[in-house]
Structure formats: C-alpha cells, structure tokens
Write a sequence for this structure.
C-alpha cells in the first residue's frame, strides 16, 4: 500500500466523515478499491463515505421561474422515476411529484454583480457501511454493485440530490448537469 492510501485509511480510522471533492466522477468506496486498498480493511475502517460536487447557487433576489424544455423535462422525469423505483420519496423534500415541473434560471442584479449566482452549495451522496455493504466488500464489487446494494439505505444519489436542489430553486438545471450526468444511473 502506498503512503497516499495509508494516509486515507488512517483518516477513516478516526471515523471522521470522508469528504470527497474529487473533480472526476468517482465515489469513495470504488475509488479506494481502484487504488489497491484491501476491501477487508476498508470495511473495518469506514463508517460512512460521502461524495460531493459544488454548484453555484442561484441569486435568490433575481432568479426567475422557467418552464423546462422538452429535453430537460424528460431528464427530470427519468430521475424522478428512479427515486420512486428505489422506494424514496420527493415529498420529504417539499416537492409534489404530480405538480407541473418548474425550474429556475439566472437573471442578474446588483446583489449578485449581474452574474445571477450567489454562493455555492454541495450536491452529495453517501454510502453507509451497513451489514449488506460489509458482506459484499470482500468480494471485490464493482461501483455499480456497491451502488445497487446501497440503494436500500434510502439515501439520495448525487443526481437525485441535484434534482431536489434544482426543483426547489436552489440552483439551475445547467449547474447540476455540469457536475453530474443526470441521464446516467
Ligand atoms: Zn441577483
């Protein structure tokens, strides 16, 4: 194991949250396995892994509502369907699933220096090391297999969290799409 891996593992051992802000689309469990970390060590060291991407927040003083394009609406419906299929609910986030879909977009005012954005927010996903994850980790699972097992935990995936943040007007469709592939499961 190289020093970079040992360092990551010792940070896990303190059971602090791992905050992964990698620019590339990777998740903590699969990424460390790719680096050659023994999955058995990972299981005993990790209690939770979190991945994060930053997006710009829309300026709350000037943002305006917009009707999604046909393409945007199709993508949104796809992500909504994945939430439903996985037994999660948007109503926990104050979003009515049967209401017409509204998005928000930038305008620009003196409060945001005419950029339309003010501040940043993370889009997250997390995987808990529960019994089901512990069970599959020694079998050297793929990223897809880990995510499939993790679905039962009920935590929103990154594209689902991005959907919540665009439908509640925190950020725009484009901002989410720029950091996470909304069409990819
Ligand atoms: Zn503004």
């Amino acid at each position: 194991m190289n020093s970079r891996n040992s360092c990551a593992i010792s940070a896990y051992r303190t059971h602090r949250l791992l905050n992964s802000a990698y620019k590339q689309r990777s998740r903590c469990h699969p990424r460390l396995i790719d680096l050659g970390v023994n999955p058995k060590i990972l299981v005993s060291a990790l209690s939770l892994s979190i991945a994060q991407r930053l997006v710009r927040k829309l300026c709350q003083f000037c943002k305006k509502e917009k009707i999604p394009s046909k393409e945007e609406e199709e993508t949104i419906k796809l992500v909504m369907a994945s939430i439903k299929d996985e037994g999660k609910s948007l109503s926990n986030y104050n979003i009515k699933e049967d209401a017409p879909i509204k998005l928000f977009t930038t305008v620009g005012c003196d409060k945001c220096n005419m950029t339309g954005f003010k501040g940043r927010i993370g889009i997250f996903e997390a995987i808990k090391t529960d019994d089901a994850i512990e069970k599959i980790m020694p079998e050297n699972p793929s990223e897809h297999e880990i995510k499939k097992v993790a679905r039962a935990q009920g935590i929103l995936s990154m594209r689902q969290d991005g959907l919540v943040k665009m439908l509640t007007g925190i950020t725009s469709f484009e901002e989410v799409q720029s950091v996470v592939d909304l069409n990819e499961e």
Residues 1-7, 9-27 have pLDDT under 50 and may be disordered. The two ends are 31 Å apart (CA to CA).
